[in-house]
């Protein structure tokens, strides 16, 4: 299980690029627009490798990539961690993040995707039907 710090400001998927004598992590403009981060400020950065990372040469990466989910789509996901607001964080293809209300780590939940952005999707839980006992 991944432990999430209370100081977490944002989660996004970005590209690591070599540029002249430095390495740059591309931050989606939406992170600045939403106020998650401020240009010129200093942040601690954690990089999490995914299975997709090892296949990066075989795929396109970056904000121009289409999100792997669509609004209205129903999926079953596994919550990996809990964010500072108490919502679950699940990841699907290419490390794309889906926020799951009241998700608990290692919980498998069926969700419907309500809103999709280039870096994260927000979902609602699908109402579970009550189990019947004879």
Strand residue percentage: 25-35%
Question: What general outline do the C-alpha atoms trace?
Answer: globular
- Give the count of structural domains: 1
End-to-end Cα distance, whole Å, is 37 Å
Sheet of most strands: 5 strands, mixed, barrel
What structural class results from the helix and strand content? Answer: mainly beta
Low-confidence segments? 54-63
CATH class: Mainly Beta
CATH fold call? OB fold (Dihydrolipoamide Acetyltransferase, E2P)
**Average pLDDT, to the nearest integer?**
80
Provide a count of the helices. 1
Helix-residue proportion: under 10%
Give a verbal description of the structure.
This protein is mainly beta and 134 residues long. The protein has one domain: OB fold (Dihydrolipoamide Acetyltransferase, E2P) (Beta Barrel). The protein is 4% helix and 30% strand. The strands form two sheets. Strands 3-4-5-7-6 form a five-stranded mixed beta barrel. Strand 1 and strand 2 form a beta hairpin.
In short:
The chain is mainly beta.
Kindly list the characteristics that best describe this protein.
single chain, 134 residues, mainly beta, OB fold (Dihydrolipoamide Acetyltransferase, E2P), five-stranded mixed β-barrel, two-stranded antiparallel ribbon, 1 helix, 4% helix, globular
Topology:
Layout (H helix, E strand, L loop, with lengths): L15 E4 L2 E4 L3 H5 L40 E9 L5 E4 L5 E4 L7 E9 L3 E6 L9
Parallel strand pairs: 5-7
Antiparallel strand pairs: 1-2, 3-4, 3-6, 4-5, 6-7
